[in-house]
Amino acid sequence: xxxxxxxxxxxxxxxxxxxxxxxxxxxxxxxxxxxxxxxxxxxxxxxxxxxxxxxxxxxxxxxxxxxxxxxxxxxxxxxxxxxxxxxxxxxxxxxxxxxxxxxxxxxxxxxxxxxxxxxxxxxxxxxxxxxxxxxxxxxxxxxxxxxxxxxxxxxxxxxxxxxxxxxxxxxxxxxxxxxxxxxxxxxxxxxxxxxxxxxxxxxxxxxxxxxxxxxxxxxxxxxxxxxxxxxxxxxxxxxxxxxxxxxxxxxxxxxxxxxxxxxxxxxxxxxxxxxxxxxxxxxxxxxxxxxxxxxxxxxxxxxxxxxxxxxxxxxxxxxxxxxxxxxxxxxxxxxxxxxxxxxxxxxxxxxxxxxxxxxxxxxxxxxxxxxxxxxxxxxxxxxxxxxxxxxxxxxxxxxxxxxxxxxxxxxxxxxxxxxxxxxxxxxxxxxxxxxxxxxxxxxxxxxxxxx
Length: 451
Description:
Blueprint: E1 6-9, H1 13-25, E2 29-35, H2 42-46, E3 49-54, H3 65-74, E4 79-81, H4 91-99, E5 103-104, H5 109-116, H6 118-127, H7 143-153, E6 157-165, E7 168-173, H8 179-194, E8 199-203, E9 209-217, E10 223-230, E11 234-235, E12 238-239, E13 241-244, H9 251-268, E14 272-281, E15 284-291, H10 298-305, H11 309-317, E16 334-341, E17 353-354, E18 357-359, E19 366-370, E20 377-378, E21 385-393, H12 396-409, E22 411-413, H13 419-427, H14 429-432, H15 440-447
Parallel strand pairs: 1-2, 1-4, 2-3, 4-5
Antiparallel strand pairs: 6-7, 6-8, 9-10, 9-14, 11-12, 13-16, 14-15, 16-21, 17-20, 18-22, 19-21
Helix pairs in contact: 4-5, 12-13
């Protein structure tokens, strides 16, 4: 069993700091890597060692595989933790880490590759018994074929370009009489944009919620599912608030899906932390994707289940067995995470700059994951998220009450942040009463510009 004594963290910001803290709790030394824009960053100051890996642009630093591997070898690191974003789901990088005699803290490269490809991921999901969105079993080859599948699936449907991405090459079709125009337009758009006019079809979910299940598996075939998170409050597919557990589910729905996810993860042979993401509508779940890494919202699961997921990732990478089985994974209370971004709360335009005052909230049940401080200058180069406020209480109403207090206490001056938006959301009746879906926040924002 390999012994991990030193971990290089191939990331920055709050997640780099989060990993440093987990390592320190385990007696493991850490190496921070940083760009020239991050020379004064907190993760650089708190790591045992630090190495500059390039200039500010991410492609020249945090995405520079050679620089990161060289830093790991020069500092005699045993392992690399990628955090999330950047290189965390790059199968080729995970393979290079192993080829250089280092331990990759995450699932193996084959698993990352397998679940990162949409077609392969859906195929794997079906093979492993996960429920998927009804759709065509291959390419749509003609208008007649499209009409036939529309009837089989049931309207409304979504016709999509196989090579599509970025929201292009897809159209919603509410009834058969809209099919011809939508089919022709989507096919032409796909040909023009992607050089490939292959189309396929899926059931269109009008009011879905985004529910995801936290997976943890070791290299000995043991798997546990740490319940679920509701991540339905999203803007442009970016999560704004996340909760654990998903209060909209019944206990039977929760128990059934935990068992389904556990069986699927075991059949896949999954090890490390990961997340099965689903769309949920009218009591049914539909597999969306699997994230083969740590999630931004992992703290709400940690608060409710009392587990350090980063610590578990490191233990699993070192070949240790899980210290849990499904019967003793028991949730307690409710947690909500608020992503605080350096953005205008109305326009969402990034607002980098110098923080003149930073006073995070605290008290019972309040956790803040952040790497900023008074006097810190937020660079314009990277993601705008600067803090995660995580609030825990015995139940959801108490959690909302405590979160309102915590947001009121949180002071960040010198830049604009999304804290005012988070406050408005907690005051909203729909949010309090769970009357929202994936599309709710976009509608709310369009109808409720703050003064």
